[in-house]
Q: What sequence folds into this?
């Protein structure tokens, strides 16, 4: 095949695709946000409702991502290290949120935790409100974003195997020390990427949150819901400015956790670069 | 295993050698039996409290730590003072001759260097027993040869009780001062290498430790057989089928009576003196046999 002849068209197609689907729409959102000046944009996102939406989004991200990270690492360890009947079920369930529509996730939560749901009565008696409240939003977000940490960490765990952990144990390390000093550093890059994806997913989640939150302005309205409400009310500057804020947070997280990434340099390099050959080794004589 | 010895667990792949080593280390639980070190029953003691140094076949380096930190790991976990750790690591790197590589990462080391790093790491905790799983298995032939010599010298220097697993009988004979032959999960024989080579407990051990051939229905070592052009030294008649020159040694395939065959391993010198050619009629006998003793002792001789 003549590589040279295809190089240019391939680049044009790839660039065009990205331009039309991502760069152009996002660029226009930025442009429209600041169309009436920075001040107008600033004012539109510093209303009490907007600030509350931002605050709620940050809270939901912090709780849901933390929960998904802990659950994700734990589940990965179980899937990678333990063999027991039914382990495949866990494996399958972890992927389920990827296949389900977020709206279905939201409806499911209502069916179980809503006022008329399974636990509804019990919860109401104890004064706990999950649906149309912050706990419901956190649960919906955590469910939807659940697979990402597992899918990033599990392959790394499987690749590194258990020998390093066993070696650490023979050297006197307790299980917790082994996890903290050997396992965790080994999965660090995969974990960082998984957390990045989880954060992005929680930040941007709309459908599931819409269903369980009721989108009560100034109460259960996250940033994505705020944007939606703004569009409905034809407050377009607010909608676009809110979108810009979400985008900036996502970019920030990506830069901190995933951007510096040794994923490209570190993890892959160690396999591709040739290690020094033994024949170059200075000859050893202990005498 | 006696204190300070270097024992090789030798046997074909899949025979349970590595499993035995892992049981000693506590990485696997025995179905039955006990593990004792220095007369202390360690069967139910956790891996990390056993004080064994374990070198994995693929070294299991901590990839995210430098060579120094790898070696220091066992001491850091034990919360030794920083200065002590530094001195001890220096000492160990010197011992295994990789002082100049302390700040590198395992991925920047060659296989042999990784092997020595793993050894230093295991020795850092001053183990009561050092366990090596196929220590040279992942190295190329030349490096393997160098490391064998080095390991034996190292063992003389530090004389920690060592058990290594190998499927290479040459390696075991060269490095170890004691052998344990393991086959299909059973211990076939344990003892000193030379003793076992000459007096194997059974056919399996005999075959596994070196070349064998059959004469008079007995297994013998082909280099213990001699050939003569006449019957002065006794033995039995044979016809030379093939003469193969393999560098230092010469292999002679013989056809015996009743369609049996055997082969003899000769030195180049001995072979050229005999001037053997296919079709020659020769007399083959055991080299231990003196001419007069030949007939009467032939039957009992190779009964080993």
A:
């Amino acid at each position: 095949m003549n590589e040279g002849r295809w190089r240019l068209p391939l680049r044009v197609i790839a660039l065009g695709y990205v331009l039309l689907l991502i760069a152009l729409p996002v660029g226009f959102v930025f442009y429209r946000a600041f169309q009436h000046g920075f001040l107008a944009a600033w004012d539109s996102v510093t209303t009490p409702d907007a600030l509350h939406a931002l605050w709620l989004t940050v809270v939901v991200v912090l709780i849901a991502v933390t929960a998904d990270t802990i659950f994700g690492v734990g589940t990965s360890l179980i899937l990678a290290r333990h063999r027991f009947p039914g382990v495949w079920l866990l494996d399958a369930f972890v992927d389920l949120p990827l296949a389900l529509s977020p709206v279905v996730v939201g409806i499911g939560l209502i069916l179980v935790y809503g006022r008329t749901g399974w636990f509804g009565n019990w919860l109401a008696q104890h004064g706990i409100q999950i649906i149309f409240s912050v706990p419901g939003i956190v649960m919906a977000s955590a469910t939807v974003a659940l697979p990402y940490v597992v899918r990033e960490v599990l392959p790394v765990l499987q690749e590194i195997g258990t020998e390093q952990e066993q070696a650490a144990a023979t050297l006197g390390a307790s299980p917790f020390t082994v996890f903290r000093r050997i396992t965790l550093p080994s999965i660090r890059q995969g974990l960082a990427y998984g957390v990045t994806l989880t954060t992005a997913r929680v930040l941007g989640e709309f459908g599931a949150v819409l269903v369980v939150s009721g989108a009560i302005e100034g109460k259960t309205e996250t940033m994505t819901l705020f944007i939606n409400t703004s569009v409905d009310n034809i407050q377009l500057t607010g909608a676009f400015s809110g979108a810009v804020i979400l985008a900036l947070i996502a970019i920030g997280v990506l830069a901190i956790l995933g951007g510096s990434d040794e994923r490209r340099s570190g993890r892959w390099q160690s396999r591709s670069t040739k290690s020094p050959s033994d024949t170059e080794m200075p000859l050893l004589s202990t005498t | 295993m006696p204190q300070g010895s270097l024992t090789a667990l030798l046997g074909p792949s899949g025979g349970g050698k590595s499993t035995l080593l892992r049981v000693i280390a506590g990485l696997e639980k025995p179905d039955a039996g006990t593990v004792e070190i220095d007369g202390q029953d360690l069967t139910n003691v956790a891996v990390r409290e056993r004080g064994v140094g374990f070198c994995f076949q693929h070294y299991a380096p901590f990839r995210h730590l430098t060579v120094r930190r790898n070696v220091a790991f066992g001491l850091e976990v034990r919360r030794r003072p920083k200065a002590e750790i530094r001195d001890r690591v220096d000492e160990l790197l010197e011992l295994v001759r990789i002082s100049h590589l302390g700040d590198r990462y395992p991925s920047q080391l060659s296989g042999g260097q990784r092997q020595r790093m793993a050894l230093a790491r295991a020795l850092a905790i001053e183990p009561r027993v050092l366990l090596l799983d196929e220590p040279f298995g992942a190295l190329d032939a030349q490096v393997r040869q160098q490391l064998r010599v080095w390991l034996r010298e190292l063992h003389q220097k530090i004389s920690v009780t060592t058990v290594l697993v190998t499927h290479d009988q040459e390696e075991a004979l060269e490095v170890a001062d004691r052998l344990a032959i393991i086959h299909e999960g059973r211990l076939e024989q344990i003892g000193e290498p030379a003793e076992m080579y000459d007096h194997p407990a059974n056919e399996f051990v005999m075959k596994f430790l070196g070349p064998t051939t059959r004469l008079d229905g007995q297994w013998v070592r082909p280099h213990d057989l001699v050939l003569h052009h006449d019957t002065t030294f006794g033995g039995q008649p044979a016809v030379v089928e093939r003469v193969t020159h393999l560098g230092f040694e010469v292999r002679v395939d013989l056809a015996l009576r009743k369609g049996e065959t055997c082969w003899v391993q000769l030195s180049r010198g001995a072979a050229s003196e005999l001037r053997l050619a296919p079709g020659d009629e020769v007399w083959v006998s055991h080299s231990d046999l003196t001419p007069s003793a030949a007939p009467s002792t032939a039957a009992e001789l190779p009964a080993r």
